[in-house]
Amino acid sequence: MNCCSTGQSGVPVREAGLPVPEQKESLSFTASPGLPHRIFHGGACLSEFRRDPISGRRVIIAPQRSVRPAVGSGGGERRRPRPAYVKDCPFCAGNEQMTPPEVLALGRGGAAPDRAGWKVRVVPNLYPAVAAAPGGASPGRARASGYGVHEVLIETPAHNRQPGNFPPQQMALVVEACYRRGQALAENPALRYIQFYRNYRREAGASLEHPHSQLIALPFVPSELRRELERSQQHYLAGGRCPFCLVLEQESRLARRIVLQNDSFCAFIPYAARSPFETWVLPRRHRASFLESSVPERVSLAAVLEELLRMLAQALGDPPYNYYLHTAPLRSAPLPYYHWHLELHPRFGIAAGFELGSGVFINEIAPEEAARFIREKGKTDHEQSR
Asked: How far, in whole angstroms, is CA 231 from its chain's centroid?
């Protein structure tokens, strides 16, 4: 199946016990407030409550709010060209002496470590959030030593190439580096969970613009993951099936929220997306841990992720974003109720007082329309001219 293939369906249905209204509408992209906003013809656009079928989290879909007055753009804008090498960038090839000694390098061949020639390089974070030496950490206490591992995955030697604009096979090396570091850290019995994540642009938390992602390994399972695991287990005990597998089947059947897919992965905007263009990438094969993925699956994930990020940049003007992997705790037994996946959040707007106080997010674009917008506007110039 082609990486960019999508299904089509325009018939409103009931999903997760909630109605999906049909509206006659069109999309236009505006610089302010930075979101594709809906222009409705005939009748008011009403808000809608949705509940995430796995977490139980509620969101408010409120497309009428996207036409509010705003100062500046909440999204991204095309940035000026960058050079391939920056003299004072610690991540550029040739500046290896500016980082701690590498723990992994791919693509260099037999050359000496900490020298140029690599394609992906992993180094300890020079300013780590957690300390590498355990100090009697006891995560169950209210206060404990901040033990863990914090590493940077330098995704390319070139300062001016980002995912979505990588050379062929480059993203596959990035995914492979994540897998290899995960396998190595899983051998440490003091570590319980690894969070792989990427922050793109300063608005999303990146302090350096050179393409990189990060991992933090912790001696405990974070509460967000613990809740997701517990809810998934409850669904499994009630229905006998992995809830993520059920969601994947439903999204594949309806096809209204799918952005792109291939034989091994499906990228879609979830039914109860918390923010505009939130996208999940799920493997079709049930596995609880990313570390159980096969080589072909990792290559396939890289292809979907590279194309997804290209489409977002094309459609939304290179917005800031965060993505992260949710995966089973280290050394877990096979979990029939959990399914590893990637979640991506383009940064449009901020979580304000209502969201922080209630935990209920307001999304200004219906997921079905957001997916359609990315599919249409994310096409290459060649595809659009056909």
From this structure: 21
Residues 327 and 277 reside in one and the same domain:
yes
Cβ contacts of residue 43 below 8 Å, gap of 6+?
A: 23
Predicted TM-score of the model (pTM): 0.84
In a domain, 6, yes or no: no
Among 268, 295, 348, 68, residue whose Cα is nearest residue 183:
295
161 C-beta neighbours (distance < 10 Å), count = 17
Nearest 5 degrees, angle CA 273-CA 202-CA 362?
25
Average pLDDT of each block of 10 consecutive residues along the chain (386 residues)? 41 35 33 39 67 94 65 50 94 97 93 93 96 62 80 97 94 98 97 97 92 97 97 97 97 97 97 96 98 98 97 94 98 97 91 90 94 93 55
Q: Supply the range of the domain harboring residue 52.
A: 24-71+240-380
DSSP label of 131: B
DSSP state of 358: H
Question: Do 252 and 341 have their domain in common?
Answer: yes
**Residue 60 near residue 134 (C-beta atoms within 8 A):** no
Beta-carbon-side half-sphere exposure of residue 334 (alpha carbons within 13 Å): 6
Residues 244, 375, single domain; the answer is yes
Contact criterion met (CB below 8 Å) for 57 and 359: yes
Q: CA–CA separation, 30 vs 67, rounded Å?
A: 10
- Asked if 15 and 250 touch (Cβ cutoff 8 Å), the reply is yes
Token pair 């993951």 is found at: 225
Could you tell me the sign of the dihedral formed by the alpha carbons of 382, 174, 316, 367, in that order?
Answer: positive
Strand residue runs (E) in 257-327:
258-261, 265-268, 279-283, 321-326
Distance from C-alpha of 378 to C-alpha of 312, rounded to nearest angstrom:
6
Q: Which two tokens stand for residue 165?
A: 């604009």
Q: Are residues 254 and 204 in the same domain?
A: no
- Spatial CB neighbours of 22, under 8 Å, sequence gap ≥ 6: 12
For residues 21 and 198, give the distance between their C-alpha atoms in angstroms, rounded to a whole number: 35
For Cα atoms 217, 219, 140, give the angle at the middle one, nearest 5 degrees: 145
Query: CB atoms < 10 A from the CB of 47, how many?
Result: 11
Query: Do the bridges between strand 321-326 and strand 193-200 make them parallel or antiparallel, or are there none, so unpaired?
Result: antiparallel
Say whether both 172 and 125 belong to one domain.
yes
